[in-house]
Amino acid sequence: MARSTTTEAVVLRSFRLGEADRILHLYTQERGRVGAVAKGVRKTKSRFGGRLEPFSHVELVLHQGRGDLDTVTGASLIRSHDRIRSEPYRLQVGMIGLEAMLKLFTEQEANEKAFLALTRFLDVLDESPLRPGSRAALDPVVLSFQLKLLWVSGYMPHLETCVECGSTEPLVAFLPAAGGGVCASCGHGGISLSPEGVHGMRLLLHSPIAAAPTAGLGERAQRDALAVVTASYEHHGGFRLKTLSA
Ligand SMILES: [Zn+2]
Question: Per-residue pLDDT tens for 160-193?
């Protein structure tokens, strides 16, 4: 039966469809991941204006027909996030966040925590400091966001005690298969971790995304966090993010 839902949503990706239409990959508050068609969106006098660009946080009316794709029948802007789209460094950081959502949350199933993390990430990125010359993949805001998404997905890296023996000795490596850090006695193989890296990841896991820019993570800590995030994606999800290797 055809029906309509009103929901907040973030546009993750958008493709042209024919002359005037677009296909949107959305992450919605009410139904999780949804694919939708926006008709006439590329006409100059479109009723949707520029509201359905990637990063846009919108309120949508979605009509569910018989096909796989919903139809967008109404759209109002909550936050445009133009500041992300119009600045190259923020855009690169933002694209990593959107790709992480696309790969981790593929089901049409509401996940309030994932939606909240996504909207917070975009809000913080609008205001976060630019780091010219620094790799977007090492940005503390997007590292914090991805650690939160791993947490919400049930893959939070265990970094409190040694995941093998339970000891509280310093952690020296990360074992992707075990999903956590290990002490020196258990640390055979795995990804080596610095004390700054362990400290930095604990800090990011236990503080809001908004605190990430001022968490004071050094480059080594950022690299360790990136290695743990990448290994967790590969081991648990079987994927890599293209935007992280840029
Ligand atoms: Zn151990």
Answer: 999 999 999 999 999 999 999 999 999 878 999 9
Residues present in the chain in total: 246
Separation of alpha carbons 170 and 196, rounded Å: 11
Q: How far is the CA of 168 from the centre of ligand 1 (A)?
A: 8
151 vs 50, which has greater pLDDT?
151
CA of 161 to the centre of ligand 1 (A): 8
Give the right CATH number for 83-245 from 1.20.1440.120, 2.60.40.1220, 3.30.310.50, 1.10.238.20.
1.20.1440.120
| Residue 160 CA to ligand 1 centre (angstroms) | 12
Secondary structure (3-state) at 135: coil
The model's pTM: 0.95
**d(Cα 47, Cα 56) in Å, to the nearest integer?**
16
Q: Which has the closest alpha carbon to 174: 135, 215, 230, 246?
A: 230
Q: Which helix (H) or strand (E) holds 120?
A: helix 112-127
Q: How far apart are the CA of 235 and the centre of ligand 1, in A?
A: 21
